[in-house]
Amino acid sequence: MNSQANGTIRENAVTSQSLDVLKNDDPRLGYFYHPVALETEITDGWLKATLLDVDWLIVKTFDGSLVAYRDRCPHRSAPLSTGTVCDGIISCGYHGHRFDDSGRCIEIPAIQDQAHIPPTARLEVAYGVICRYGIIFLAPKEPNAPIIEISEATDSAFMAGYLVPKNVRQHCGYLADNFLDMAHFPFVHTQTFGDEATRLVDNYEIISKLGGFTARYAHQFANREDPGVALGERELIQRRELIYTYVAPFSLSLRISFLEADGVNMIGFFISPVRDGVSRLFCILWRNDMNGTQAEMDEAVAFEERVLQEDLLLHEQYKTDGFPLDLRFEVHTKADRITVALRNELRRRLSEDAM
C-alpha cells in the first residue's frame, strides 16, 4: 500500500536486489558518450583511459583526429598500452604486431608472408571519440543521446576555469543526483553558500529536451563570494536563478544568474563511470564576472573545489550496490522532483526499446 503524508511519498519496502539498480559497469551505458580525459592529458600521441571497467587506448592519428581502441591485442590479449604508438601506428609490446588507424593488423614480424595475416587480427575500435570543452568524450557503441550543449563555452564574454579531475568512490547516478539536488544546500554546504534560513525548496518546472531535461528555479542563498557584502553594499542573503540541464547519462550543467550582484556562473559537470563503485569527475566553470583576470578565476575555481569537497565528504561514505532507478527503493518528496526526473529519464534511456 502506498502512503502520502506531509509531502512525502513512500512505497512498499523493497530491496535493491529486486529492482533495476544501475552500476557503473552496466553494459547499457556503452550506448552513450562519456568523458574520459582532458585533451591536455594526451602526451606522446596517446593515452590510456578506463571506461565501464574496460581499458581503452586513445590515439591521435596522423591527421590529428582521435581514435579509441580497446587496450587488448587480438593475438594473445596483451595490453596494447605496453607497446608503442608512432604516427598513429600501434605496435604491440608482446610480439610486435602492428596495427593501422582502422585497427587492421598490417604486420606480424614472426611470419614471412604478410599476405596471410588473419582477417580476425583486428583491434576493437570504439564508435566515436569527440573533443568538446577541452574534454575527450568516448562512445563504445553508437550513442542514443547527444553530448550536452553549453553555449557559454564559446562566448567570448566568459572565462573558463578547470577543476582538477578526480576519481570518487561513488556511483555516477548518485553524483548526478547530488548535482541536481536543491534540498541539501543548507546542510552540506555550511562553509560555502548554504544557509539554514533557505531550507525551503519552492516549486519549479521541469521541461523535456533532446537527450534529457531542463529545470528553472530561483532561491535565496548566502553569497559569500560577493565582495559587495564585505563592503556593506549588499546583504549576505541574496537571490539567484538556477537553470539545470541534464543530458543522459551523466552530463549536467548549471547556469547561475546572480540577481543582486549581477554576473553569470555556468558550471559543467561531467561524470565518467570508470568501474563499479568508482567514478571520475570533470568540472568546468565559465564566468562573465571575472573582469578578465586569471587571479579571480583561480579564486572561483578554489571556491568551487571547496563546494565539491563538501559533497564528496558525504558521498564517499555511501555503501550502496548501485544507483536504484526504481522509485520504490527510496523515499521521494515534492522537493525531489528533479532527481526523480533523473531516475525516470535514465530508466527510459536504458530500456531495451531505446538501445
UniProtKB/TrEMBL annotation:
Name of the molecule in the record: Methylxanthine N1-demethylase NdmA
UniProt keyword Heme, yes or no: no
A Pfam family: Rieske
PANTHER family in the record: 3-CHLOROBENZOATE-3,4-DIOXYGENASE (PTHR21266:SF57), IRON-SULFUR DOMAIN CONTAINING PROTEIN (PTHR21266)
Enzyme class per UniProt: oxidoreductase
Signal peptide (residue range): none
GO-annotated biological processes: methylation
